[in-house]
Design a protein that fits this description.
Elements (H helix, E strand, L loop, with lengths): L3 H8 L31 H12 L2 E2 H11 L8 H14 L2 E3 L8 E4 L1 H9 L1 H21 L2 H20 L4 H20 L1
Antiparallel strand pairs: 1-3, 2-3
Helix pairs in contact: 2-4, 3-4
Length: 187
Amino acid sequence: MMAEAECKEGLGASARFGGPGWTFDFGPRGGGRRRRRMFGSGELRLVLLKLVADEPRHGYELIKAIEELTEGAYAPSPGTIYPTLSLLEDEGAIAQAAGDETRKAYEATDAGRTELEERADEVDALFERLSGHGEHRRAFATPEMFRALGNLAGVLKNRARSGKLDEQTMREIVDLVDELAKKIERL
């Protein structure tokens, strides 16, 4: 039987296969790479400030605006948005917009607009990065690609669970996957 370390060496640490005494794992949950945080320290605050400076908005509209900005790659939770809005309000960067809406809409104050002017380059770079998430996602996140990857993962998982994965078969699978990766790289 091929040792787990040899299997990892041939496929990478995040793609292990199973059988009696082996493990089967495609890495972090959801497969692939570990997710990075969408926003660094203070970035969400800056995004919200810019969005309410563009036009008065309430929390739900801000969630949707960020989701639209990232072309669906990220939608912040209300538990992230509302505390950040409270912070901005406490700092005097935003205030409740005038009107008799049932939902609390916010607009930027003079202090908030001044901050945006002073940090214009940072804001522009941040918005450019966020809009790039959607472009990056479109490049590989097609339904066909997910179907094909799901088919491969399902076949490998079923084969590993069946207990019929001997050393020779494992080597053949490793060779096939490596060959496929090389072909895709040459496209």
